[in-house]
Amino acid sequence: MRAAYSPRYGAADTIEVRELPRPVPAAGELLVRVHAAAVSAADTMIRRGTPLYGRFFLGLLRPRQAIPGTGFAGVVEALGEGVTSIRTGTAVFGETTLGFAAQAEYLTIPADGVVLPKPDDVSFAEAAVACDGAVTSLCLLEDNAGLCPGERLLVNGAAGAQGVAAVQIGKRLGAHVTAVASEGNHDFVTALGADAVIDYNARDFATGGERWDVIHDTVGTRRFGDVRVALAEGGRYVSGVLSLGLLSSMLWTGRVGSRRALFSATGLKPAPELRERLERVAGMLVDGSLRLPIERQYRLTDIARAHRHIDGGHKRGNLVIDMIEALDRENQKIATRSVASEHLDAHERAGEHDMANKTPGQVARRL
Ligand SMILES: NC(=O)c1ccc[n+]([C@@H]2O[C@H](COP(=O)([O-])OP(=O)(O)OC[C@H]3O[C@@H](n4cnc5c(N)ncnc54)[C@H](OP(=O)(O)O)[C@@H]3O)[C@@H](O)[C@H]2O)c1
Known about the structure:
binds NADP nicotinamide-adenine-dinucleotide phosphate, Rossmann fold, 2 domains, alpha/beta, about 375 residues, Quinone Oxidoreductase, Chain A, domain 1
């Protein structure tokens, strides 16, 4: 099978595409033919081996698992011994967590791991990115920050994978949502439901005198100490981007004062917990209360290009590797069935983004 392969830490060009043996499902595992795999900011950090202390988990000198990727959607091709909960031919989606190896034509995953049947009305592409941004933001906002109806939420990095999900989940949880993004993304995040927008190039949200109950720093560009003044009494700063500064803030805010700094690593949560969160995200995708915009779709051979785009720091929503090079047809089918009447937004019409890589389905589903 063909797979992305990251033999050493380094720049985007260190990623290759290699022909490797197809994995064989062990007892209790599924073999999945991958149709779509997410490419995320987390993948690029793992590729770089940064921050350095991450290497204790990922491999000291080189990545322990050379095939990157965690989020996937595909079809069950074979069953390991003893698997009775699912049939071959079932479309599934999920997350390999610390097993990685999702950016390949085939992967194996425990049948009781983070894997669920894919709803018919959710495309393989959208299902593949459901874990990265949406499950992470759901966990951070609900489990860590305990966001309540009527509270004020600020999402820093609102146009990224976690950000687009955080804006919509924040609204669904009943919060008033302020989105922080560059000016060119203001229409985009407003269309996702943001009540207010702030251009981080024009104004520092932390120093304007406004207060929020929860600050979700999806991209980790603001330190707790710098934005603490913008937290209301009892406010929570939450981020999925770990740093030594955040660790120390977590320690002292757990003991002193009413404002808290919080972090959690979604991939380290137990599989049943993640499956439950993923099931809820799938429900939101089906009932239309959550959209996971896919900015670009790449062939596996263009994986380094996808990494370079993320390294640029302005990815909009999600990126996907089309493993079967046929997602266009599938997206077209879903688009025709459910959302064919939607219109392109202004950016799409202006051709500002990579339309050459965009499918008719994505166009119809509107970024
Ligand atoms: N703890 C966990 O479980 C977990 C799970 C997944 C990911 N993560 C981590 O979460 C982080 C974010 O992931 P992601 O996938 O959401 O990132 P992403 O999609 O790559 O974020 C890109 C976005 O960042 C925005 N941005 C860039 N500079 C900014 C600034 N100075 N202020 C505000 N926004 C800015 C850009 O918006 P503009 O173009 O408008 O600037 C762009 O839309 C990564 O570090 C990843 O490793 C953690």
